[in-house]
Amino acid sequence: MSLLYKGAQLIDPGSGFQGLADILISDGTIVAVGKADESWQATEVRDATGMLIFPGLVDLHTHLREPGGEHRETIATGMAAAARGGFTTVFAMPNTDPAVDNPQLVEFVRAQAKAKGTIRVEPIAAITKGRRGEELAPIGQLAKSGVKVLSDDGSSVADARLMRLAMQYAKMFGLVISDHCEDANLAHGGAVNESETSTKLGLPPLPALAEEVIVARDLLLAEETGARLHLAHLSTKGSVELLRSAKARGIKVTAEVTPHHLTLTEEATASYDTNMKVNPPLRGEEDRQALIAALADGTIDCIATDHAPWARHEKEVEFDAAPFGMVGLETALSVIWTKLVATGVLPAKRAIEALSTKPCQIAGIDGGSLKVGARADLVVFDPDASWKVDPEEFASKGKNTPFADWSLQGRVVETVAAGKVVYRLENEDA
């Protein structure tokens, strides 16, 4: 199949190009970029006037819940949600049941994704067996199976000796450690950010220090081992300061931030809406501004959704009892565009870089580029379209979004993964 988009505004952070151009795709590859002439032959021609086209989005932090949590999400529904949000690659976290801690389960995730034939799913494997933090998973075998990232996400590796050993092995096999930074003792059953707000609400506090202590520890371990460390879902001003200092010292560290930590604060929890309960929790305005500034200047490398679907009955309980997590794949791009890009806080090219090019570089995969010869992963985006978030329209099984009823600017019109149209808005509206 060949596909020609004409008259779009291209944004390609990988090459630095931004401007009007046509783009031709054939056999899963970008074969021409520029001004189309009679030699550009395609089986389908799309008028993209007024649209933006940029590389397919890549999420380093997605929870697909399968195996074991299929009532919350399946690999198939998660892939559909991703495509609807402009994502062409997602990295699936291993906190499933059983945990993805061996090559057989890695292959299971891959096979489930391949059977659907839409977007690319890259399994993340656990650092420790069963994510229990007691014994390392078979890191060498996992590396041979093609895993690129290790994480015990949802849990921090409490044992510093074990984490040091994990980093040593990860360096040996060229893997990235994605780090859930949370001291369980300091967190101690917390539900919301520790502040005046938590006191007013009468909800158990979760202090910023619980995150920052592990950030500091693991930066030191990464410095000593030379391992590649990726800090997941940073949420505090203190973590940003530690990260900035570490980068200045030459530590091999990257970091991500979520759309919800960039756009919401602890004030959102005042409604006791359990869809606002997330780990790490929504923090204060000072933290939010620090995260935005760090993303803008590149201290924080990328944006990741931490898409965490739950069944309705699991969230429809008291705030204390509700699980942590929000869905995010279908809203991430539009939320970032509305709140940061359209308001002039973040340049469009930097936003796309953080959502596409940088995640590819961090994980060491192809993608994040519109260059000739690149994998044909791209998003057609209408920057002027307005729409209202209705969770009932989500492709995800999870409806637990903090952005319900938000009016957003900018919408995904088409998503192309490996040259195949995997989502088209007009089909949804038909």
Which labels suit this protein?
430 residues, alpha/beta, TIM Barrel, eight-stranded mixed β-sheet, five-stranded parallel β-sheet, 18 strands
Can you offer a commentary on this structure?
This protein has one domain (54-363): Alpha-Beta Barrel (TIM Barrel). A hairpin with a 2-residue loop joins strand 17 and strand 18. By secondary structure, it is an alpha/beta fold. The chain has 14 helices and 18 strands. The strands form four sheets. Strands 1, 2, 3, 4, 5, 16, 17 and 18 form an eight-stranded mixed sheet that branches. The mean pLDDT is 97. The chain has helices spanning 75-84, 103-116, 139-144, 160-172, 184-187, 196-201, 208-225, 237-248, 259-263, 285-296, 312-315, 332-341, 348-363, 425-429, and strands at 2-12, 17-26, 29-34, 44-47, 52-55, 57-62, 87-92, 120-123, 149-150, 176-179, 192-193, 205-206, 228-231, 253-257, 302-303, 378-388, 407-417, 420-424. Helices cover 31% and strands 23% of the residues.
At CATH level 2, the architecture is Alpha-Beta Barrel
CATH homology superfamily: Metal-dependent hydrolases
Q: Give the CATH class.
A: Alpha Beta
Number of separate strands:
18
Predict the CATH topology. Answer: TIM Barrel
Number of domains: 1
Question: What is the SS-derived class?
Answer: alpha/beta
β-sheet strand percentage: 15-25%
Mean pLDDT: 97
What gap, in angstroms, lies between the N and C termini?
23 Å
- Please outline the major beta sheet: 8 strands, mixed
The tally of helices reads: 14
Shape designation: globular
What is the radius of gyration computed over CA atoms, rounded to a whole number of angstroms?
21 Å
Residue share in helix: 25-40%
Uncertain stretches: none
